[in-house]
């Protein structure tokens, strides 16, 4: 089956293609000629993930899946959430985002947070969602240089290292995204 993964991140695409095997031919947004910055107008990760998948399906008539991720911080009522990429502004800069997050948490004692990934799969007009989470807390200074986004300040529960201090293989064993994709891959392999 040919399936569009609503991304242009070739690294993500390669990882998922390897998990799925030859039974599925994955293509990216550019492969199907979609150059649009697909709108993500909603207040929840699940709705934005569905909106991306629906956009691709409606405009290009191809079966597809889309992922959306956010960091939800308890003491900030779930922020940055859907605004994770552009928390400190449209420049989408990870250092700026972390700076703002640490400022906003400076007076809070509860540092608990989680990452949430929701994947929406549309096959023949049918919608399915797969969710993955990882619980942890936000430390007060950046540690580590691996990964991206909020990794230098996110320490998963049960570990004394941030995601940015882990190798990609270590992070992949417990990450929100890996858990959500495990659900998707399990489902697709049964089709
Ligand atoms: P996306 O939906 O995968 O594009 O993620 C949205 C934003 O969430 C990213 O721009 C990052 O700021 C943040 N984010 C997503 N996944 C991770 C992660 O694994 N580590 C750290 N930050 C992440």
Total domain count: 1
Indicate the CATH topology. Maf protein
Bound molecules: inosinic acid
Mean pLDDT: 96
Can you name the CATH architecture? Alpha-Beta Complex
Order of helices and strands: EHEHEHEEEHH
Question: Describe the biggest sheet?
Answer: 6 strands, mixed
Task: Describe what is shown at a glance.
Helices cover 31% and strands 24% of the residues. The chain has 191 residues and is an alpha/beta fold.
Describe this structure in words.
- This protein has 191 residues and is an alpha/beta fold.
- It has a single domain (2-189), classed as Maf protein (Alpha-Beta Complex), CATH 3.90.950.10.
- The protein is 31% helix and 24% strand.
- It has 5 helices and 6 strands, in the order βαβαβαβββαα.
- It has a 6-stranded mixed beta sheet.
- The protein starts with a strand and ends with a helix.
- Inosinic acid is lined by residues 68-71, 84-85, 147-151, 163, 175, 177.
């Amino acid at each position: 089956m040919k399936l569009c993964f609503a991304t242009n991140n070739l690294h993500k695409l390669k990882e998922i293609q390897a998990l799925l095997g030859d039974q599925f031919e994955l293509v990216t947004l550019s492969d199907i000629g979609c150059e649009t910055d697909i709108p993500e107008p909603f207040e929840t990760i699940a709705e934005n993930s569905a909106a991306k998948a629906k956009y691709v399906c409606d405009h290009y008539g191809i079966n597809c899946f889309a992922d959306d991720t956010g960091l939800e911080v308890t003491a900030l009522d779930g922020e940055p959430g859907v605004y994770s990429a552009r928390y400190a502004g449209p420049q989408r800069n990870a250092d700026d985002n972390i700076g703002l997050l640490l400022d906003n948490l400076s007076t809070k004692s509860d540092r608990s947070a989680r990452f949430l990934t929701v994947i929406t799969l549309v096959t023949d007009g049918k919608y399915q969602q797969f969710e993955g989470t990882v619980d942890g807390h936000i430390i007060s200074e950046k540690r580590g240089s691996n990964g991206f986004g909020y990794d230098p300040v996110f320490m998963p529960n049960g570990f004394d290292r941030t995601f940015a201090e882990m190798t990609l293989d270590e992070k992949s064993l417990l990450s929100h995204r890996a858990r959500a994709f495990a659900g998707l891959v399990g489902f697709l392999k049964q089709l």
